[in-house]
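Much of our argument rests on the idea that a fold can be written as discrete symbols. Part of our work consisted of pairing the sequence of a single chain with a tokenised description of its backbone. No coordinates are needed to read the tokens, only the vocabulary itself. The record that follows shows the chain in one-letter code together with its fold in token form.
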Amino acid sequence: MAKSCLGIDIGKDQLKLVLMKGETIQKAVSVQMPEGLLKEGRIVSVETTGELIRKTMKENKIRCKEAAVVVSSGVCFLRNVTMPEMTADQLVYNLPYEFRDYITDELKKYVFDYSWGSAEELPKAKKPKKQPKKKKGEEKPDEKAEDSEERRGEMELLAAAAPLEAIDDLRLMARKAGLKLTFAAPEVSACENLLHYKLKEESDKEYGILDLGSTSSRLLIFKGDRHQVTRIIERGMEQVEELLADSLHIDIHLAHTWLLTNHEDCVNSEICQDAFSQISVELMRALNFYQFSNPDSRLEDIYICGGGASIESMRESLKENLDVTIHDASELMDGLGGGRVSEAPSLWMLAAGTALGRTAKAPKKQINLALAGQKKKHYWVAVPAIGGIVVVAGVIGKVAVADRLVQMSEAQSAVSQMQQQVDDITAYIDSFGDLQETYAHYTYQGLTGDELSFLNRPEVLKLMTDIIFPKVMVSSWSVSGNQLSLPVTGENLSDINSLVQELEQEPIVDYCNVMTAVTDGNTEAEAAADKVTGQIVIYLLDPLTVQEQDGSTDVNEAGAAAENTDADAAADTADDGFEDGTEGGAQ
């Protein structure tokens, strides 16, 4: 089954996505990039870019798991190097030193990879042959001949280097978009893939691919599908937009839109024509320098891509100034299904070429910076290590864990027994019911503001302790509703009367009645000498009530509500009894 991969090309103005399955393009879309999101080839906000890719995939119903990203030329170094024949391990060690004149930072902060002209692996290390024993009379072989036979060949490689931080950003960006970065290669690799699949029969012919970008124009020259040289022209579409904006006195963003849509035929204006001519002349100089340096060069065809490739006046200017045949890059993708896509294929050519390197069978060993620098996982090495860990863990578990587990089990059993006892005691306490509600007025804790405003038993006890006990003797007392009954014994009748008057001055007392007050003697002398006994009834201002949970009000003593209805009648009877008792006692 053919592989599927999403090719991603992140430009300064456009984000290009190409869904490739095998050698066929399934979908290709491009969206406008937010301004300032890409600066000098580096992604400024990885999260924002990943979210933009995810959103674009969702809107265009693109479903894929793997991503192949074009590494910008602004962060990637490329070199054509010739090295002695060596193994892959030796090449990994020696390749970074080929960039020591280009990289000023530490080499460990970069990742390196290479492409080789064959799909086969590099030669493996060979064991030295044993020299046969020299026989008597045999002449010594010529040392120079041996050196010639043992002289190793040379390898021509295209080496690439990129900052490790930049590759990590691409990996994080893909993860934010719900993808896995499996392939990351420079623009050159994408062009080599397209040239190989389009021009298989003409492997020795020279081709050029011109990328008319925003900030610069890059001319890549290939011999067959092998990269030869890259020429960079520091003039791109941004310079044309700036000249157009200055000439028409408009904003640079509006000039960009006008240039792409040919608003009021601005591309044919004198300003744009001069700008196109300057770019074409610079490219002609670069091409002439290449042909002068390579007299055998037969470069005849150049394919143009990028944002400027869609401008007809730009293409006409190139045809006038360059002595080559100008082709649209869409011709390289005719066999890949590019003709089925309505949008200009030359815009997302690099994204398609990068995805093709992942989904199709590679004609040679390709550059893949996504895997460079990552160590291969040798699971067979981990098997003995895991076995040793299991054995050691078993010994430690027997000595240190098993015994402790037994002790822990015994301790847990004891804890369970104690917990059972606690549960039994708790159940026994719960069987008494809600005692807090029953004895709520014996404490101030847990009462609401309304409940604290009611009269409570501590206040009654304080009244008896501070006022009543110092003046008379009280044998017992009872509280019913708001009525406090006291049998008292005083020295004389005036003590009882003064007590009543003092009680009526208290804030919690409404009024008092003396139910009875008699002396023990029959004569006046005996009455003066004997003590006076009586029954005092104190009516408190508020009843001793408790606020129930359901909002109802209940009296503290049982039957108090019924007794309150007879309070007036009892008071009248008490007055009569007091008068009768006093008169009888005096007699």
In short: Residues 125-130, 143-151, 545-587 have pLDDT under 50 and may be disordered. The chain has two domains: 4-123+152-359, 440-586.
